[in-house]
């Protein structure tokens, strides 16, 4: 039973209260009594509008549902657009503007590169993510399918030198592209040295050469005569050629190269939202505690890996000498952004005088900013933002009024925490249809604090399905990626960013690579994000960050954005193409396959969420490809099933049968996990199975198709069952 402290008119969970008073406030210059007074005042001033905004979402959805029902069989795109304008779903466009954000770190403004996302509930992963600023290229290649297992190059228990040779050759191919030598390949180098402040490469044929562009060599580690690392720079990104003739790999390489260290995750989103499970005060405090550890630099985690005990902490900066002997350093850690939750959910960590929970997004805004104040005051071991900014990612906002609300709230938080105006920066997730259609208006509302826009295409797909639930049966999930609305949405996002002056100032970001084990495919496809004008894109793991970083060595983003600037295409009409099938002709087999796939994804993810509190999982799809599942992918699968059910593409019985059959498949996939409770032992008793059922059968009535309300309720049920058994 949660204990509360009564403060002014609010009840605050004792755990949260003590955490804030004992661990967070000291060192921030803020006093407990005043803080809690301001806290209540701030929340109280924003609750009514938060509620109104949610009511407006509901009202618009009802109007859209009614319109589609009335237009069955006579859909006309122009009428549809006029209707959306009339109800304020499409806003009127205001005059041109450019963003004016100040104090943006170089990582956000200038260094195009990968953006890693990590669940904050998992300290081990969060530390790993922060440290993923630098990654071993040899490890990234060796462990992934980029290097084929053919010709004896398979991954074995021990190091396989045949595979190792392929890795080294491939890595040197990448070096040849990013930092080429004059008339030679890095594969031909016998020794790297520094001669007259320049990198010199002695070749196997007895000749000596240097870099094609000598200015790419910017520093070294060790002695100038005996360097252990050569630091190179290309497209604002660094990489190190590391030398060690005694290392097991280095000694097999004629130039003593033991590895190539790649600057990888330039920025990282530390996530309090869709990849975590945080359903009560206890969970929220755990999340905030980890964030505090990251901001103060003292987070550590001890665990066993490969039979060894490992303690992980944040990496220090990397130090070098430049060719003239001056010392300098580069950050050893990724620049961290914090993703808050959106406007929808409430939390029982704080209860008002009427017994009502407060909006969770407001709590996140205050707590994550307060904690990050330690970074601004340089209270920690390291500094995250050298420009004195706090980077908050705000997800799931619908339209410009909701963005304006965030802006006003952030100003209020700045006042209460004694921070300069616009210290709190915002990354706007473009992941709801009403935001995509009005993106420039949304950006304008935060033009003095915006640091990114990002196409969260997963949530966006869920919203596409839900918004047009009444329009008809949706195309198959796999076809969404190639559909017109999605292509236009991606292009329109880049256009809005460029038109409002993001170039060299802020990030135009693209979405997640959701197949963490398919790195060869990622290398083939994700370069497309850069060619489309993005200067960052999401990756699910440090390995993916190291590999995706290579793309930024290949493409000159500045040049691409320059070409795209001034593009006059308008995308609204294309974005309004609803992805429905007029006369569905799917075979029974197609339908069943679609249902099986969605049901397997839903159950595989939900069972770990609800029963074990794991917010992001790798779940195999119907073809046994491991997919990154989070709440946004769940939103798609559950909305898709709900949509087909709603339009009679499948029956209720068929969905029931599919869920039960797939529960057995998921149980089998998890049979090695001692903490797993099988769903198929008793479907009615399995909270996870019931959650999955609700997500589908009650999917059409969920607010904007979100999964949070059902997941939270069911997770709380499991937590209280566990508590009663104790
Ligand atoms: C729509 C959206 O909102 S997308 C954004 C939200 N989604 C996410 O944040 C997903 C982020 N990724 C993840 O959580 C994970 O990669 C998963 C759940 C997909 C896969 O996790 P696992 O099955 O444990 O991965 P796997 O076994 O391949 O790798 C584990 C190792 O990789 C590391 N790792 C994996 N993902 C990450 C990550 N995102 N950040 C840091 N380290 C990571 C782990 O620390 C671990 O290494 P360690 O043993 O040295 O600690
Ligand atoms: O948050 C990301 C998404 O794709 O949704
Ligand atoms: Mg999202």
UniProtKB/TrEMBL annotation:
It is found in: Cytoplasm. Acetyl-CoA binds at residues 117, 124-125, 275, 312, 540. It catalyses: glyoxylate + acetyl-CoA + H2O = (S)-malate + CoA + H(+). Its main location: cytoplasm. Glyoxylate binds at residues 339, 431, 456-459. Its EC number is 2.3.3.9. It comes from the Bacteria. Pathway: Carbohydrate metabolism; glyoxylate cycle; (S)-malate from isocitrate: step 2/2. Involved in the glycolate utilization. Catalyzes the condensation and subsequent hydrolysis of acetyl-coenzyme A (acetyl-CoA) and glyoxylate to form malate and CoA. This is Malate synthase G.
């Amino acid at each position: 039973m949660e204990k509360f402290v009564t403060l002014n008119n609010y009840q605050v969970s004792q755990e949260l209260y003590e955490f804030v008073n004992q661990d967070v406030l000291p060192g921030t210059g803020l006093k407990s009594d005043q803080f809690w007074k301001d806290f209540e005042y701030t929340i109280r001033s924003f609750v009514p509008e938060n509620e109104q905004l949610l009511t407006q979402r509901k009202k618009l959805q009802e109007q859209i549902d009614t319109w589609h029902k009335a237009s069955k069989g006579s859909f006309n795109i122009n009428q549809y657009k006029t209707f959306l304008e009339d109800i304020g779903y499409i806003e009127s466009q205001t005059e041109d503007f450019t963003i004016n954000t100040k104090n943006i770190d170089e990582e956000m403004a200038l260094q195009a590169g990968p953006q890693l996302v990590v669940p904050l509930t998992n300290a081990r992963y969060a530390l790993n993510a922060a440290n993923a600023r630098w990654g071993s290229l040899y490890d990234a290649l060796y462990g992934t399918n980029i290097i084929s297992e053919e010709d004896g190059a398979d991954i074995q228990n021990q190091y396989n030198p045949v595979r190792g040779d392929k890795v080294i050759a491939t890595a040197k191919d990448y070096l040849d592209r990013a930092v080429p030598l004059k008339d030679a390949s890095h594969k031909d180098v016998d020794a790297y040295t520094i001669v007259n402040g320049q990198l010199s490469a002695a070749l196997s044929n007895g000749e000596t050469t240097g870099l094609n562009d000598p200015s790419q060599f910017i520093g070294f580690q060790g002695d100038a005569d005996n360097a252990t690392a050569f630091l190179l720079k290309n497209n604002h990104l660094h990489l190190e050629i590391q030398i060690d003739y005694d290392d097991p790999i280095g000694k097999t390489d004629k130039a003593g190269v033991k590895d190539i260290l790649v600057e990888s995750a330039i920025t990282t989103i530390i996530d309090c939202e869709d990849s975590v499970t945080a359903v009560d005060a206890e969970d929220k405090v755990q999340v905030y505690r980890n964030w505090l550890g990251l901001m103060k630099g003292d987070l550590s985690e001890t665990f066993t890996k490969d039979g060894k005990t490992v303690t992980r902490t944040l990496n220090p900066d990397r130090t070098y000498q430049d060719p003239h002997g001056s010392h300098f350093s580069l950050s050893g850690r990724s620049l961290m952004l914090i993703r808050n939750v959106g406007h929808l959910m409430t939390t029982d960590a704080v209860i008002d005088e009427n017994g009502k929970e407060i909006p969770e997004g407001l709590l996140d805004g205050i707590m994550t900013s307060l904690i990050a104040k330690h970074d601004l005051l340089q209270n920690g071991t390291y500094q995250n933002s050298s420009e004195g900014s706090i980077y908050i990612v705000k997800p799931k906002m619908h339209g410009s009024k909701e963005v304006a609300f965030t802006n006003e709230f952030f100003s209020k938080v700045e006042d209460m925490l004694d921070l300069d105006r616009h210290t709190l920066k915002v990354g706007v997730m473009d992941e709801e249809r009403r935001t995509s259609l009005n993106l420039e208006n949304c950006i304008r509302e935060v033009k003095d604090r915006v640091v990114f826009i990002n196409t969260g295409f997963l949530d966006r797909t869920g919203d596409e399905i839900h918004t047009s639930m009444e329009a008809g049966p949706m195309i198959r999930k796999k076809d969404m990626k190639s559909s017109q609305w999605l292509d236009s949405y991606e292009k329109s996002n880049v256009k809005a960013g460029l038109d409002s002056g993001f170039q060299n100032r802020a990030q135009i970001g693209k979405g997640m690579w959701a197949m963490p084990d398919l790195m060869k495919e990622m290398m083939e496809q994700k370069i497309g994000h850069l060619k489309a004008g993005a200067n960052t894109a999401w990756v699910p793991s440090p390995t993916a960050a190291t590999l995706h970083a290579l793309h930024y060595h290949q493409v000159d983003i500045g040049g691409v954005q320059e070409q795209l600037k001034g593009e006059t295409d308008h995308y609204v009409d294309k974005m309004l193409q609803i992805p429905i099938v007029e006369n569905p002709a799917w075979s029974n087999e197609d339908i069943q396959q679609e249902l099986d796939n969605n049901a397997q994804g839903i159950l595989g993810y939900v069972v770990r969420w609800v029963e074990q509190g794991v917010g992001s999982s790798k779940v195999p799809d119907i073809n046994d490809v491991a997919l990154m599942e989070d709440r946004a992918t769940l939103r798609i699968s559950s909305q898709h099933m709900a949509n087909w059910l709603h339009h009679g593409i499948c029956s209720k019985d068929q969905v029931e049968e599919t869920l039960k059959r797939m529960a057995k498949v998921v149980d089998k996939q998890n049979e090695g996990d001692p903490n797993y409770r099988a769903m198929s032992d008793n479907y009615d008793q399995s909270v996870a199975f019931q959650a999955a059922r609700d997500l589908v059968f009650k999917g059409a009535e969920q607010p904007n198709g979100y999964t949070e309300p059902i997941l939270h309720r069911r997770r709380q049920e499991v937590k209280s069952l566990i508590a009663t058994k104790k």
